[in-house]
Amino acid sequence: MREQVRHFPRRPLAAAVLAGVLALTGACEFTDPAGASSPAAQGTRVATRSPDPRRTARPPGAFDEDGFQEDLRTAETVTDDYWRRHWERLFTGRYRSPRVVGLYNGRDPQTAPACGDERLQRDNAAYCPPGDFVAWDAHLMRSGYARGDAWVYLVIAHEWGHAVQNRLRRGLVSPAAELQADCLAGAVLYGSSDEGALRFEDGDEQELVDAFQLIGDKAPWTKPGDHGTAVERLRSFSRGGTNGVKACFA
Ligand SMILES: [Zn+2]
User: Please, are residues 4 and 201 in contact by the beta-carbon 8 Å criterion?
Assistant: First the structure.
């Protein structure tokens, strides 16, 4: 998923058990993709354009750091632009961008960003209401990206959804806030695609399905703070994708 399509080779996945799920109070919950198995994610990306010749050659299977950084920037820009373009049609007031802290090293408590009194945790991503910033653990993002670039778009659009929720009056924020953030992520990514700001490549939609398989809770949504099962999360994401932002507030 990107503005300029180019080839991204897939890496074979080592089969392993699901990694432990890490929670951050009031924030999101992701599972480290490096520790998970998902045979469906081993499909081959079909390139629609030849590789960018400006990129230096990489050994087969090497992590595409340039592509990773570019996708992070694109996901941030596309998501922010979407909300800026549509805010006044949807809500009152003017849109304000959250601050993007972006990548952090959750394995180093000294440098992990603080949200209130807590440091952001390893293998997680968060919107921090007191600081009004979004941030994502570098290992979480790199290991997800190694399975497919759609991962970074999903995580970033989801966290941005929490920033949007924090800008709205309480009554608009669903008790199922995590599912609503998934819905908003779907609205942004598919809406941006409809508007030509983003292009889905072959394989992206399967990557999104696989990502929800990884990050879904084992039990269905019952109370605020729950994320919902993979099926619930994907259904919510798809509702936003098909019907737009307003469907996330229905
Ligand atoms: Zn969340």
Answer: no
C-beta separation of 121 from 24 below 8 A: yes
Q: Provide the percentage of residues in the chain whose pLDDT is more than 70.
A: 79
Give pLDDT tens digits for 146-181: 999 999 999 999 999 999 999 999 999 999 999 999
| Average pLDDT value over all residues in the chain | 83
CA of 42 to the centre of ligand 1 (A): 26
> How many angstroms separate the CA atoms of 192 and 176, rounded?
24
**How far, in Å, from the CA of 193 to the mean position of ligand 1?**
22
Q: Is the whole model's pTM more than 0.85, yes or no?
A: no
- How close is the Cα of 111 to the center of ligand 1, in Å? 22
**Residues having C-beta closer than 5 Å to ion ligand 1:** 28, 178, 181
